[in-house]
Design goal:
By secondary structure, the protein is an all-alpha fold. The protein has a domain of about 35 residues. It is about 70% helix and about 0% strand. The protein is built from three helices and no strands. The longest helix has about 30 residues. It starts with 8 loop residues before the first helix and ends with a helix.
């Protein structure tokens, strides 16, 4: 039994008519929205407006901008430097105390090590 093709001319014709109707409805909605926002329809023969050329700055302007930026950075760094806390200094007495404590710790360490070695020598 021969099969009938799924898409024949009448189905395709009906689909085309439905799509054209949808397009017409969509175009009406677009026109309505354009009216609401105040946009005008472009003229049929009018070419689209070209974008403005990119603006460039002269070398003198770029130099002024760079100098101004350097000045801003210098002011920012100066403010940071002024806000930095003053470094604390170690007094002579404090330094002496630290040295004495370190010497005392090393002496205790060496004494403990010598005692260990003496004990090991006795055993052997």
């Amino acid at each position: 039994m021969p099969r009938k093709p799924l898409l024949d001319a009448t189905v395709l014709q009906a689909a085309l008519e439905g799509l054209e109707r949808q397009r017409a409805e969509t175009e009406k909605k677009i026109a309505t929205v354009r009216v609401l926002i105040g946009a005008r329809k472009p003229k049929a023969g009018a070419a689209p407006v070209a974008a403005k050329p990119k603006r460039t700055r002269s070398a003198a302007t770029r130099r002024r901008m760079a100098a101004a930026q350097r000045k801003r950075w210098a002011a920012l760094k100066a403010a940071k430097k002024a806000a930095a806390p003053k470094k604390r200094r170690l007094s002579a007495e404090g330094r002496r105390n630290i040295i004495e404590a370190t010497k005392k710790r090393w002496a205790a360490f060496r004494a403990k090590k010598a005692a260990k070695e003496a004990k090991a020598a006795k055993k052997a």
